[in-house]
Design goal:
401 residues, alpha/beta, 2 domains, 16 strands, 19% strand, TIM Barrel, binds iron/sulfur cluster, four-stranded parallel sheet
Length: 401
């Protein structure tokens, strides 16, 4: 999940950093209005909106940000919630907006529009995903994390110069042991109630020799706490039939990166996709675009003038992807990869240690970006993974000679 709205993330009072936001958010006199597309509202409603009424909060309206649809008339309710126009919200002195727009630009635009009408971010205007996470922990005593990656192997069939996981530069090519992965799954799911996407990656995911045993273990023990298990592949390998059978029984989705233009002689995207589908396994094609972002590290390190600039860089990046390894949740998967490759020192500012007692509120704070420094130590040498943070582009999957 990307945090656009909580902009100061230096840890001062662990376990209570979000109390002030929860205090504004959870007032019983609030009249909540959700703004977003129908899809965004749908997912917010399933995750949080349907509980508001049960918990005696007032969800009074849905403002469809697709103005065309809004003014077209027709239905007056969506998922049992009245469809409203902006004027109704502006006239309501107890209105609190939950903005479910997923893209930062859209979120910022809507925030600016409502700020002009007197709404205040994190008091009467909330980013929907942040609202849901705080609501989960403060009201329902559960913690659900959007996406966690697990590192299977540094072996790969490609050798991409600007790999976000630094695979060509690993000093010690290796597979993570099956025992380590199982013990990580145990400690992770002991402390986290739900993970929407559990993504298993390398390197090349299909090169991991214990894939069947590992995924069977995770699904058998924790399947009810996972939205989807996904394996990342570069589309150069046809997995064995037994792997396809395992994927089918465990409802695994195969994420295939599209490198047809970059490495046409190796990438068999269509064939691998059809092979998966014929075996009853779901596939998601990851379009890689015409260019990658150059993460900079280690040979093109960005320059910052001090801590303030690095904090701003971290906020602009808004990294959405956590990594779990050896009992630690890393805020940034690229940071983890640089450490695992032996290129960057491990630092306890950058991960949340599950091998100690902690509260859900502390874990939530970490998920939203709180740390001693207010950014990862790796942010000081990294170009960032969003368009807002990083303007350096490079060729997709250019191979190291
Ligand atoms: S700037 Fe780099 S190190 Fe920092 S969070 Fe973003 S991708 Fe990770």
């Amino acid at each position: 999940m990307r945090n656009y709205s909580i902009r100061k993330t230096i840890k001062n009072n662990a376990g209570h950093e979000l109390d002030k936001y929860a205090d504004f958010m959870l007032r019983k006199q609030n009249h909540f209005y959700v703004i977003g597309s129908e899809n965004e509202f749908n997912s917010f409603y399933n995750r949080t909106g349907r509980f508001l009424k049960e918990d005696e909060y007032c969800l009074l309206g849905f403002l469809n940000k697709d103005v065309q649809k809004q003014s077209r008339g027709g239905d007056s309710v969506f998922l049992d919630v009245p469809i409203v126009e902006e004027a109704i919200i502006y006239a309501d002195k107890q209105a609190v907006i939950i903005c479910t727009a997923r893209e930062r630009k859209e979120y910022e635009n809507l925030k600016n529009i409502f700020e002009e009408k007197g709404f205040i971010e994190n008091q009467t205007f909330f980013q929907g995903e942040i609202f849901s996470m705080i609501y989960d922990v403060y009201v329902r005593d559960i913690i659900r994390i959007d996406r966690v990656e697990v590192f299977l192997t540094s072996c790969c069939t490609l050798n991409c110069e600007k790999c976000i996981s630094y695979i060509p530069y690993f000093k010690n090519t290796h597979h993570t042991s099956l025992e380590q992965l199982k013990s990580d799954a145990d400690i992770l799911f002991k402390n986290v109630d739900y993970i929407y996407k559990l993504k298993l990656l390398g390197g090349e995911g299909f090169l991991y020799p214990h894939l069947i045993e590992y995924i069977d273990y995770v699904y058998d023990n924790y399947g009810g706490k996972i939205g989807t298990i996904r394996i990342g592949t570069n589309g150069t390998i046809f997995p064995k039939t037994e792997i396809m059978e395992m994927c089918k029984r465990n409802h695994v989705t195969i994420d295939i990166s599209d490198y047809r233009i970059a490495v046409p002689d190796k990438c068999k995207l269509e064939e691998v996709k059809n092979y998966c589908l014929e075996n009853g396994v779901a596939v998601d094609i990851k379009r890689t675009g015409e260019q990658w972002l150059d993460m900079g590290f280690p040979d093109n390190i960005p320059e910052f003038e001090g801590e303030e600039q690095i904090k701003v860089h971290f906020q602009k990046c808004a990294m959405f992807c956590r990594q779990f390894a050896k009992g630690k949740l890393y805020f940034c998967c690229s940071n983890f990869a640089a450490v695992a490759a032996g290129l960057f020192p491990d630092n306890d500012n950058d991960y949340f240690d599950f091998n100690r007692q902690f509260s859900k509120k502390e874990l939530l704070e970490f998920e939203l970006g709180y740390s001693t420094l207010g950014h990862t130590t790796f942010c000081g040498v990294c170009g960032g993974c969003s368009e807002e943070a990083n303007s350096c582009r490079v060729e997709v999957a250019k191979q190291v000679k």
